[in-house]
Amino acid sequence: MIDTFRDNKDLTENSLSEQARLENEANLQFALTAAQLGTWNLDPATGIISFDERCRQLYGNPPEAILQYETIIQHIHIEDRDKVVTAIQNALDPEKSSVYDMRYRTIGATDKVLRWLHCVGKAYFGEDGQPYRFAGVSRNITEEVAGKERIAQANEQAAAHRIESENRLRVSEEHLRTLIEQAPVATSMFVGKDMIIELPNEAMLKIWGKGDSVIGKPLREALPELESQPFLQILDRIYETGEPYAAFGSQADLMINGALETFYFDFTFKPLRNSSGEIYAILDMAVDVTEQVKSRRALEKSEERYRQLANDLELRVQKRTEELHQANQELINSNSNLQQFAYAASHDMQEPLRKIQSFSSRLQTVYAKALDDNGIFMLNRIQDASKRMSSMIDDLLAYSRLTTRDSAFEEVKLDKIVAGVIADLEFSIEEQKSEIKVGPLPTVWGNPAQLTQLIQNLLSNAIKYRKQDVHSVIEIQGSDLDDDELANMPRLLPNHAYSCLEVRDNGIGFDEKYLDRIFQMFQRLHGRGEFSGSGIGLSLCKKVVQNHHGHITAKSEPNQGSTFIVYLPKPL
Asked: Among 480, 464, 473, which Cα is nearest to 437's?
């Protein structure tokens, strides 16, 4: 009777043990699936590799039913293949027995997709020292390699999956140890309410900075600096409530080489339960995010500093806008005064001049016989002075009208403008016996009336300042500027094409030290007795060119002629 009872008891215990084993294996498989880990097993003797379904997916679903080591190696990226082969050889070498921990790329067998894998494995050796098994897990880390942000997200997901899987797993000591050792993040177990440190992997030991001497010690004793921090209280609460805990970017002060240093971690505390549902340990998984937190805080400070700068800049812009508004109002007033002056000049000032010219002409016509030579001389001087005054007023009026830019810009063919000006100056050209040579001329973007004034003044000057004993030859030609020539030109519109107009003569020329002076108002290099004029013509030319966002200059030597060069924008 007693023997029968014992047999039944043994059967019951065996049944419960088998059931626990099956549950452990199911939980392990669930954990591997949840953690997106594929498992593989290489038989060193035959070279045959066994992949689970997940691992097959990571290698692009090889079509072969039986996978050979040499075949799988061919699916590794050519740049990573040698280092992977070397690592496998070192792991299978009984003298080295290296831990296999590799990150490398694969090219999918059938889908040709490039993937990054993190593979961790271990070789098992028999009593004869020869490897009989090489097994491990593989994980797809393609997204992690793509960028730090995606790496952080993948690590969080992997950590979450790992914690969820650990809550379900009750496996054998060897399987649990292997799982923790191969975990891609820092992992350790705290067993019992005393929180004895067990199975910390290398990543966790590195974080703590105290080596493997902490293994088997209570957490409070191994890391006494935690007493003033919240972690021990959180762990005690988990033992009491069974509720897991997670934190992101949490500060932790750890004693490293005798100095207290500050770190930041994303971590999770997950309770582990035995078959009776009782909490027997807490699984700690952590990711060091110190650099990310410091970078984020530095970025926040930088953003705050830039916000302050932006506010300061906005105030400065507002102040500058008010100043520009005031300046614009003053410009409007100035333009109004200029228009009033132009009106007065065109009406009030010209009228007395017309009367002076009219009465002096009548005196010359009616009373010429009654005047002596001195009277006739003075009368001629009055007429000459009034004509110069009238001409100067006309030039000033023309210049004043250019102070506000005419908005009617269009495509202007300079060959038509030049032809019209030559026709208008036909009498002067014949009188001075000047020869006009016109070369190819470009089309520019401008105001036809202003450009007509420009070319007329340039041609008039070239005709006027000829050498008396030399046949006068004037050449007009144009060309487009290349990028190198544009780079050396001042005050031009950026990113805009320009053309060049040249008016060259063989006249009296001038010394280039007076180059700036000749474009100023009322500046003359010669007396009125030599050459007539108001001294405004080249000033008007400069104003026209400025209105067109262009540039004017000249090259000359005394008695060697002059070349006036004008840069004008091309049509858009």
From this structure: 473
